Amino acid sequence: VRSGGRVGVGGWLQLMILLVLPGLALRGLPGAWWIGPGAIAVFSAITYGMYSYDKRQAIAAGWRVPESSLHLAELLGGWPGAFLAQRRLRHKCSKVSYQFAFWCIVGLFQLISTDFILEHRLSAWAKDYVEHFVAR
Predict the structure, then answer these.
(1) CB 3.0–4.6 Å: which of 72, 73, 89, 99 could bond 47 by disulfide?
(2) CA–CA distances in Å: residue 102 to residues 12, 43, 121
(3) What is the mean pLDDT of each run of 10 residues along the chain (136 residues)?
(4) How far apart are CA 91 and CA 47, in angstroms?
(5) Closest CA to 80 of 112, 110, 118
(6) 115-135 b/e with 16+ CB inside 10 Å = b?
């Protein structure tokens, strides 16, 4: 699919910044220095391909990839590929409800990465909060 979109320096910079926390979190896992980035690259490539296929189908008025499938691919680690596809293919970038779900997934990755870097202090705090205030 050729849409003529460009990621641009700002888009690449934004992606690199978004990858800092997951990258730091992966440093602490044994063997993750090659498994983590490899898995992210594979899922990103698959997700990019799904976006590309969906874009072609949208142009041809054919069968589309369900948004839930695209979001699942993003959730499995393909969000960097989705980020690039949205900019390069100009696909799924203007639908507000889709973008909201996409950025929630990216935010979830950032939150989980931060929690891992902080040795699970955020999740421990959340557990204590729930036990203290909600379980009353």
Answers:
(1) 73
(2) 17, 15, 25
(3) 68 86 74 67 94 95 95 94 92 92 94 85 78 72
(4) 12
(5) 110
(6) bbbeeeeeeeeeeeeeeeeee
In angstroms, the Cα distances linking 62 to 56, 59, 65, 81, 110 are 8, 8, 10, 23, 35
* Predicted local distance difference test score (pLDDT) of residue 24: 78
Location of structure tokens 């931060």: 114
Look at residue 28 in the predicted model and tell me its pLDDT. 66
Cα(35)–Cα(50) distance, rounded to whole angstroms? 22
CA distances from 136 to 24, 67, 110, 133 (A): 37, 39, 30, 6
Using alpha carbons, select from 29, 39, 131 the residue that is nearest to residue 76: 39
Determine what percent of the chain falls in helix, strand and coil, rounding each to the nearest 5.
Answer: 80, 0, 20
Whole-number Cα distances in Å, 58 to 86, 93, 115: 14, 14, 39
